[in-house]
Amino acid sequence: MAVAGCTLCIKYMLFFLNFIFWLAGGVILGVALWLRHDSQTSNLLILQFENQQAPGTFYISVYILIAVGAIMMLVGFLGCYGAIQESQCLLGTFFFFLVILFACEVAAAIWGFMNRDTISKELINFYDSAYIKAVDVPGTLSKDSAIKVLEVFHKTLNCCGKGQDNTPLFKQVATVICPKNTTEEILLSMNCHPKLIDLFSNKLHLIGLAALVVAVIMVFEMIFTMVLCCGIRNSPVY
């Protein structure tokens, strides 16, 4: 064994952290796949209205998570093997990929922070365009298509309307597009806008928490990797 003392302790700590890192990659990959196929979001984001696809900005962050999770599992395995073998080459390669992964995560975090409100706003605008057609346009194919889109929103989120439309025309249309057993008294409280905001903000918070935990692990791994490489290089046995 080439290292001893504190460096040996660092070696096994790095192995343990890399194992946690590998497990975290698997968890992130699983969460990302769940977010991609979650019934609430997938039911809404596959909708089309007047040849316009529902905004898919949310899926960009999900695809980034899928890639990060897969790369984390690969890099974590490389780090575990490099630490056990006390290979400066493997540890250097691991450190290189870790820095790139960390930089990508920071860039993704900045992108997510800048676009944190964009996802819900885009889908709200998509909902409103269908809502206007369903309520204001006389009976046409466009109106029927809009009603079908709204039915998916309302059934998925258990909501109806924008919470401020109390016109007789909307009340007439509401019997078709709102969830069953919706009374006129609670109609105004079933605003879909807050439901859409909450749906994506909760999922983005989950993504942000996962990214923060991974970033902390990566910082410690980079420190331990540098210490272990220096210990291996300076070890008289090595």
Description:
The protein has 238 residues and is an all-alpha fold. It folds into 2 domains: 6-116 and 214-234; 119-194, Orthogonal Bundle (Cd81 Antigen, Extracellular Domain, Chain: A). It has helices spanning 6-37, 39-45, 57-85, 88-114, 118-136, 141-157, 168-177, 184-187, 192-234, and strands at 48-49, 52-53. A two-stranded antiparallel ribbon has the order 1-2. Strand 1 and strand 2 form a beta hairpin. Helix 2 packs antiparallel against helix 6 (141-157). It is rod-shaped and about 85 Å long. 30% of the residues are buried.
Overview in brief:
The chain contains nine helices and two strands, in the order ααββααααααα.
Distance between the termini: 8 Å
Strand content: under 5%
The general outline is: rod-shaped
Q: Return the average pLDDT rounded to an integer.
A: 76
Tell me the series of helices and strands, N- to C-terminal: HHEEHHHHHHH
Individual helix count = 9
- Gyration radius, to the nearest Å? 25 Å
Largest sheet: 2 strands, antiparallel
Segments where pLDDT lies below 50 for 5+ residues?
A: none
The structure class reads mainly alpha
Q: Helical percent range?
A: over 70%
